[in-house]
Amino acid sequence: MKKYFSIGETAKINNVSIQALRLYDKMGLLKPAYVDQETNYRYYTIEQFMYIDLIRYSKYIGAPLKELSHVFNSKDIRKLMAFMKNQQKIVEKEITRLKNVSRAIGHLEDKIKYGIESKKTNEVFLKEIEKRFIIDIKLDIKDKESDIEIKIRKKDKLVEENELIFEGETGYFINSHLFLNKGKFEYESVYSTLLGEGIENKNLDIRDIPKGKFLCITYLNDEREKAVHKLREYIKENNIETLDIVVESQLLNTLNPWENNDLLYELQILI
Predict the structure, then answer these.
(1) Which of 5, 57, 72, 210 has CA atoms 20 to 30 A from the CA of 154?
(2) What is the full DSSP assignment across 6-31?
(3) Pairing mode, strands 207-209 and 132-138
(4) Alpha carbon 97 to its chain's center
(5) Cα-flanking dihedrals φ and ψ of residue 183, to 5°?
């Protein structure tokens, strides 16, 4: 049996590139078994082919090759087993993350569809809404539009830093007492909804808007005053008892919220 294989032969037999073998040598991951001192040609043995297989497999499963080099240098099969076990945990965590991302995309699609299909405005209706996990930031009565936008960015940064997933809805909590009794529109905080998976493990002030029946009205930005009046009159005329939650949800019906007046909002009051 042939003892040594040139780098070209080794690459061809193992279906890897010569450049890859040179890189593995440079990394200290797989050194040639023999280097000709005169020609500087690299040669490998058939026993090393198993290491090439392990390198290819590690790349396939996304394992870090630098850590694999420590395993190879130790020549300890138990360290290889521990290396694979650790990578399995990483892969399982990534699978969970991707499943959550898929759910979040589905929720966002639903909200975009709902925003696009919300053609009628200034009509009062009832809607059952599932429990919503949220992160919110308090607003000041003196906040200008630019101040609110900066606070929204801070909230988004918190979501990103804590590896939370945005579920697709942004809105405002409204002072329920002022709204229901005087018809005044005062924002208390700005919120974003979050995907609920694993959320209880996060060291953040995450609240929820409870599941329930909400009295709603959809309106354009310049119709807000009309919508508020109509909803309050509806509550009064029908003697509806409301709970202490009033939110204004920003619907996803346009990509140009600041350039036109087509952005839709939905006022939701828990009853």
Answers:
(1) 210
(2) EHHHHHHHHT--HHHHHHHHHHTSS-
(3) antiparallel
(4) 8
(5) 75, 15
- 131-137-142 Cα angle (round to 5): 130
Residue 92: which H helix or E strand, with range?
helix 77-117
Name residues whose C-beta falls within 8 Å of residue 198's C-beta, 6 or more positions apart in sequence: 96, 100
Residue 192 vs residues 40, 49, 57, 169, 188: alpha-carbon distances, Å = 62, 53, 41, 6, 14
d(CA 195, CA 135): 11
Q: pLDDT digits over 48-94, tens only?
A: 999 999 999 999 999 999 899 889 988 899 999 999 999 999 999 89
In sequence order, what are the beta bridge partners of 6? 43
Q: Write out the two tokens for 253.
A: 């019906």
Q: How far is 180 from 50, CA to CA, in rounded Å? A: 74
Pairwise CA distance, residues 110 & 169, whole Å: 11
What residue segments make up the domains of the chain, in order of their start?
A: 5-75, 110-270
Statement: 110-270 belongs to CATH 3.20.80.10: yes
| Whole-model pTM over 0.85 | no
Q: What's the pLDDT tens digit per position in 115-166?
A: 888 878 889 999 999 999 998 989 988 888 788 888 888 888 888 888 888 8
Instruction: Give the angle subtended at the CA of 93 by the CAs of 91 and 99, to the nearest 5°.
Output: 100
Is the CATH code 1.10.1660.10 the one for domain 5-75? yes
Q: What is the pLDDT of residues 245-264, one digit of tens each?
A: 999 999 988 887 665 677 89
Q: Is the pLDDT of residue 198 over 90?
A: no
